[in-house]
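User: I'm preparing a small set of examples for a lab meeting where we compare how different chains pack in three dimensions. I only have the primary sequence for this one, and I'd like the structure in token form so I can line it up with the others. Please keep the answer compact; I'll paste it straight into my notes.
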Amino acid sequence: MTLVSTREPVHEPASPLPDRATCAAALAGDEAAFEAVIRGYGRRLYAIAFALVQDVAEAEDIVQDTFLKLHQGRTRDADNLPAWLMTVARNAARDRLRRRKPQAPEETFHALPDDGAARPGADLQRREYHDRLRRALGSLPEEHRTALTLRYLEGLDYRAIAETMGVTDGALRGMLGRALGTLRRMPALVEERP
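Assistant: Understood. Below is the structure token output for the 194-residue chain.
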């Protein structure tokens, strides 16, 4: 079994999603079909895992563990394979979060350095803003982090995200609206964006 890298740049298009026949062939042991499933769902699983654990290495481990479970035959339902993969990855990420020490308290986000105080260069300012944004995302509830990551980092459409997360379109749009509203009100992100 060959796993592909989940660290593809976000600006590159994701591999096409495998059809039902490819999923069924993968479940039946076809290695080429299995690799097509990995290529098709690897980035999505990584996005979900990273949105929750906020750690590259842990997210990659979760993706590999998820595909290992698939390879071991833990499911045989080709029709529900995408939902099964997303659920396994999300549950693995939640399990890892439970085993972690508590995150920094909310006061930490209010005490971040003023981005406008020192302007050594646009790149530094952009990196600092993205670091603050990453920490702010980490403070959101996991459903909000997952929805934002899939929509704005992975570029998935609303229907695909709703199916992935197992929610209705209306619930997803409400969730995204609340998450964006929360981010917009965070003092660390209110300042001028790069």
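A couple of notes for your slides: The CA atoms of residues 19 and 72 lie 21 Å apart. DSSP finds ten helices and no strands in the chain.

User: Perfect, thanks.
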